[in-house]
Amino acid sequence: MDISVYFEPIQVKDINVSEEIRPGKIGDIIHYYSDERNFPSLENIDIAIIGVIEDRNSLNNQGTSTAPDKVRDFFYKLYHGNYKVRIADLGNIKRGFEVEDTYFAVKTVVSDLLKSHIIPVIIGGSQDITFANYLAYESLGQIINIASVDSCFDIGNADQKINSKAYLNKIITHQPNYLFNYTNIGYQTYFIDQDAIELMSKLYFDFYRLGFVRANMEEVEPLVRNADLMTIDISSIRQSDAPGNANASPNGFYGEEACQITRYAGLSDKLTSIGFYELNPIFDISGQTSHLVAQMIWYFVDGFYNRKQDSPLKEKKSYLKYRVSIKNHKYEIVFYKSKKSDRWWMEVPCPANLKSKYERHYLVPCSYKDYQTALNEEMPDRWWQVYQKLM
User: Fold this and answer.
1) Per-residue pLDDT tens over the stretch 153-184
2) Which candidate in 10, 259, 268, 291 could, as Cys together with 74 as Cys, close a disulfide (CB 3.0–4.6 Å)?
3) Residue 102 and residue 106: Cα distance in Å, rounded?
4) What residue spans of the chain are helical by DSSP H?
5) Any idea which fold 3-304 has?
6) Which residues in the chain are classed under CATH 3.40.800.10?
7) pTM (whole model) above 0.85
8) Where does residue 341 rank: exposed (0-12), middle (13-18), buried (19+ CB within 10 A)?
C-alpha cells in the first residue's frame, strides 16, 4: 500500500531544520518528508514519526493541531545516542473532510507500519486519535493492552460523542472488541467521578493514583511493559513543567518522571506504538512543553535501541523459574526472571481452549515486589486481575 497519499510534507522553514542541524544531531540523519517527490523509504526503518494535525474533537483545548511541527523543531536539534538511528519522519497526516476521515487515515497508516514491524510515534493533535490508533490493531486481529498516562480516565458515557475526554468508552464498546486490558498511570482523584472508578474496577482494569506512582516509579516499568499501545496526555504533567495545555493542572508528573516513563516504554519488547497528545502551542511558554515532548520522544527512542529482547515468550532456558504456593496450596504462581535483564514475569493459569487467543496476556510483567508478596502468602494484585479475566 502507498501510504504517502495520506501525508503532506513537513514545512521545513517552520522547524528551522537548515539553521541549527549539526553532524550527530537527529535532524542530520533522520529521513523526513520534505517535498512531494521525496517520501521516505520505509526499508530498514525501525521507527516512524507521524504528525496528526487534528483537533476538531478536542475538549476545551483547540490549537493542538499545530503541535507536531513545534515538537520537531526541538527534536531535530537533539543529539542521538550511541546507536544507529533508523527513523523516518513521514510528515503530517492530511486533515480529513470529516474527523472520521482523519481517523481512517491514522488507522490505515498505523496498521501498515505495524505489519512492517515499524513502530509509529504519533504526535497529535487531540487524544481522541488514540481511538484510531486502537482500530489499527483491530484491523490486524490483535488483542492488545493499552497504557494511558493521564490525570483522567477519559471514559465518557456510553451515548456520548467521541472527544478528547471521552474516547475510552468507544474502545470498550466497539465490536468486535480487541481490548484485553487498560491501565491508567497517574490519575488524580479530584478529576474522577466515583462511578467511573467503580466501572474501572468492574472491568478489572488497572488504575494507579499519581501519588502512588510518583512514590513507586520502579513499579511503573512492569505496567508499561505489559502494554502494546501507550497514549500520553500532556496535561498529566504539572503546569510548571508543561504549560502548553489549556487543561494544565498545578499537580502532575515532573518532566523527568515523564521522560522516565517513556524510556520504560521504549525498553518494552511488547510495546509497538505510542502517541503524545494535547500539546497546545497557544499556551506554551518559550516552547517549553514542545521541548519536553521532544525529550520524551528522545527517551523513547533511546529505550528502543536498548531493548533486551527477553520476552518470556522466547525460550525458557533464558529464565530462572520460581514456583510459589499460597492460600494452603490452593493457588500456585509461577514466576520467571530474565537472566539477561533481571526483569520479572508471572504466569496466570489460562484455560486450554483460550491459550492461543490470549497467548500474549497470561504471562504478566511484574516486579520483584510481586514475588515477595507471593512469598508472604498474599495474592499479587496484578496476578488476580488477570486471573479473573481469564477464568
Assistant:
1) 999 887 889 999 999 999 999 999 999 999 99
2) 291
3) 6
4) 12-15, 17-20, 26-29, 67-75, 99-115, 129-140, 168-173, 194-202, 210-215, 220-225, 255-267, 288-304, 368-375, 381-390
5) Arginase; Chain A (3.40.800)
6) 3-304
7) yes
8) middle
